[in-house]
């Protein structure tokens, strides 16, 4: 019973108790009835993105860009799909959904260390000790989330992993991390709404007193997060986290795995109006015994969850407005090491993107015969990010001012990936 | 004002519980045999030097430093940074009531050298170093060979005795033995490397040892020469060659001891399998050619190439070289400075490579040398930093120095104290401190296990070969939800018999004195008059029920930015 407004009150009634704490609740109280009425219609056309993050660096040479017969090829065979591409034989359900996604086979990046690669692929910037750059989710939350006054959930949600932070955009755009069960801890205060209201009012006074003492921006950020938390605690939109409410056949289609539930939750969250959801599937750092791990473990889980998500989004007419991106921090070495594993490799690898108007079913770019090099035009994290932002109707001329006052162009001035948009 | 004795007498049971525990556990570790901080001779010279060199940069940038922090701010800061918790109401009041001009020296001397605080001092630095050496999640997974308690036992013993830092590091780098307390070959120091040597030719052992003890980041050069780093791939593999004799052997879970594993050195035959006399490692260059490397330290010192442990124990040789390196002292000084001031002289604090120029290079060199010539004494280093002027500044900014903020992308000049959030561990210990031991039950190990269980709600391991992990105790919604509604805060703010609120309510103090006590407990200061009225309002909105009003006030205090920030 975690998700109810305290003790049998509806949200509006409850919020009226909180009038005194208005500075902390902000957007939640700014809600107009007209907006509410239009909400359903608006949601239909609003854009969103789902990032399927493959932590550890997935072996794209074994999934999306196979090299059968080459010394680097590994044992997997390519199969045909309903798109104009071939993929790994152990992704049969995805093969029936490749008319919805495209493969960019010409990614070439320079960060082959997990921490740096994570940061770079999430932000479009290489790590810099003096600036913290905003990640995908924070950028989208900032650009789209703020235009959705009826959204009571955080605009950037990460399922089963932590994602990367909001950087200089501030704590208000941080990822809200949940595990794939969707149970959010500590939602229930267990006291009456009146009492919550008087506590919040007192808290606001003390909070502002400290902020007024000019101790730097961190103090203000704290107050903003208090407001967001309160909004969350009292929202009926929290229902979106409850994947267990889905019919059994739907749950089975997505798969009874963390990733499957995460994909299902992503669909529910996007339906509720959340503009950015990241779903994490780890375990791709396969330095040893890679082929067995992929075949028996990683690929079945990925295949089921991801294909279910694409089918479901398409069926509901949501794929036209929802961008889906599949990637990790880098690919893996074409060379197979002595432990039947593959190591970190950033020079030539693949990502998937589709939905929200991106051209589906094709392969963009190519690598050489053994996968060690991109042939022709290659693409970077910045380019991918620019393309995804474009698909979400985010203006690529948008320039943020970092906390240091330096102007920073969205997606680090990446160029659009030709053929994808 | 209430003399601390009066307050203590009101709650004899609580104090007794705490006292008994404290004395038991202190007996378990040897007392510090150290000389005291001498405020007027040895320490003042270093403090003066810090102040001078920091002020030179202020002048160069035309910054006027913030005013000194208030006594209560400074006191709260020191307790949090040195002991890992806020001061109790008694401790805060005692410091505020002291009118002598050596009160700061006295406090730091007490926290560093008084037997009453040895236990807590060791606990705090054990936490800090456990997180550094094996991460917040190390040893929590059954597949891990790390025995977290074994690691903590070694650390706790080291910090309680104020083991010189060079000895401490040497033991961690060269440790052999088993990981689990209770085993006859137990050596807790083995837990640092036990999970870092078997996979991928000990790449984690190489990169973590170099990063933690030398402040040099070599991990990127494993596969290629790094463009922004003077390090070459060759150097990485030469350092890696020091870790080729070591092996970790897991024995699995054993009853009463948890996870047991053994760290040993055995003869290394070289990668071709048959060259004990010149045991080599091979690595692949980016052009596909294969190169060879033997153990050579970062400064170019070569050791014997023998793979026989009897002839050359490569880890021992490495440990000898590490503790003599100038990077060794500089990296700990930088780490400690970052611990106390929020930022080091480089960012990140554990990257002192030539590409990463420090903000205060001369001061870093100076403190490194002083630390080395003062027997690598960590407590001495702490007292220099804590008594320095920059550490004592207010976090309130003025017109001239508000741009000096690393959050704005500026390299730190330390012209005001930078606000930073408590760590999850500090919050936990602080909440316990506010109840003065009411919730502290069981042996040291049991207490740590309970704490560790609580902390895991925030931690997540990435499961990659770099051992990456993240905490959601970072100022975001899950943390605020925990502070609003979590079990620990719920119990801290309950009115149950014998709890904090109940104890205060039952005491013979006046109502406003009771409110005052809450402020001392949570914020280490007296309430302002507006805050006293706030408390009254809260009592009124509870229909005049004083206990319930106090409970709301306490919840509010715990949820303020003033509480969660070190300021």
| Relative helix content of chain B | 40-55%
Low-confidence stretches of chain A: 1-9, 19-37
N/C terminus separation of chain A: 45 Å
CATH architecture of the largest domain in chain A: 3-Layer(aba) Sandwich
What is the count of DSSP helices of chain A, taking H or I runs of 4+ residues?
13
Summarize the largest interface: chains and residue counts: A-B, 68 and 67 residues
> Looking at the structure, what is the overall shape of chain A?
globular
Main sheet: strands, sense, barrel of chain A: 8 strands, mixed
- Could you report the average pLDDT of chain A, rounded to the nearest whole number? 89
E-strand count of chain B: 9
Main sheet characteristics of chain B: 3 strands, antiparallel
Query: What are the secondary-structure elements of chain A, in order, as H or E?
Result: HHHEHEEHEHHEEHHHHEHEEEEEEEHEE
| SS-based class of chain A | alpha/beta
Strand residue percentage of chain B: 5-15%
Mean pLDDT of chain B: 88
Q: Helices and strands of chain B: which structural class? A: mainly alpha
Give me the oligomer status.
heterodimer
Rg of chain A computed from alpha carbons, rounded to a whole number of angstroms: 22 Å
What's the layout of helices and strands?
The complex is a heterodimer of chains A (421) and B (567).
Chain A: H1 11-17, H2 22-25, H3 33-45, E1 48-54, H4 60-63, E2 78-80, E3 86-88, H5 92-95, E4 101-107, H6 114-123, H7 136-143, E5 156-159, E6 176-178, H8 193-211, H9 217-233, H10 248-254, H11 258-271, E7 276-281, H12 290-315, E8 322-327, E9 331-332, E10 344-345, E11 349-354, E12 363-364, E13 366-367, E14 374-375, H13 381-391, E15 399-401, E16 407-409
Parallel strand pairs in A: 1-7, 1-8, 4-12, 5-6, 5-7
Antiparallel strand pairs in A: 2-3, 4-11, 8-11, 9-10, 13-14, 15-16
Chain B: H1 4-10, H2 12-28, H3 42-60, H4 71-83, H5 89-97, H6 103-113, H7 115-134, H8 148-160, H9 165-174, E1 177-178, H10 203-214, H11 233-240, E2 246-254, E3 258-265, E4 281-284, E5 290-293, H12 314-324, H13 326-341, H14 361-373, H15 378-386, E6 420-421, H16 424-434, H17 444-455, E7 459-461, E8 469-471, H18 477-485, H19 487-492, H20 500-506, H21 511-523, H22 529-541, H23 546-559, H24 561-564, E9 565-566
Antiparallel strand pairs in B: 1-3, 2-3, 4-5, 6-9, 7-8
Helix pairs in contact in B: 2-7, 3-14, 3-15, 4-6, 5-21, 6-7, 7-8, 9-12, 13-14, 13-15, 21-23, 22-23
